[in-house]
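Dear colleague,

Thank you for sharing your sequence with our group. We've completed the structure prediction you requested, and as agreed, I am returning the results in plain text so they can be pasted directly into your records. Please verify that the sequence below matches your submission; if there's any discrepancy, let me know and we will rerun it promptly.
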Amino acid sequence: THYVEVTAATQTAVCSINGKNYSTLYEALQAAGSGDEITVLSDIDEQDSTFVQYNNYNSITINLAGKAVQFGKLQVGASLTIKNGTMTTTIDNANVNFSDALTIDAATVTVVEDVPYALQWTAKNINIVNGGQLHVLGDIYVGGGDDDGFNLTIDATSSMSLNGGAVGGYNPSLVAAQLNQYMPDGYSVDE
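Please find the predicted structure tokens below.
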């Protein structure tokens, strides 16, 4: 009689939350609770994934930890921080608390066109800090309700680029004013 040892196939962890490993970023996003930080452990290509989190309203952080991530679409219901790496995705938060923030912290994030927007952030705060870069390849729609305002903060070490798209928002004149404060001389965004 011959015996053959059989072991179950293991999936490689690509990210973790508080020491618990996940084989996809999508699974980690599904498991994340409010205030959780997802740490990316390796480069990720999940271009066909769409994460929808409108019902949980969990504020999450994705710590790219120096890795490169491609993810189809992030539809979040609360604040989102992306830090320390490179990510290409589409970001949508149409159903949020207007005080929530999108923060790009020491990361390069490229948002790409998806119907209808590459970036739809209808809360009132976008922060790009600590060498962060936000590249928008397509249309954007930003800002809270008419009375809630829109605050764009780009620190001296960071940048935002707009390429090939229209700019809109709940309060177009406020959106244009916030973007124009960072435009080089001779350039402007019209409402």
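Summary note from our side: The chain is about 10% helix and 40% strand.

Kind regards,
the structure core
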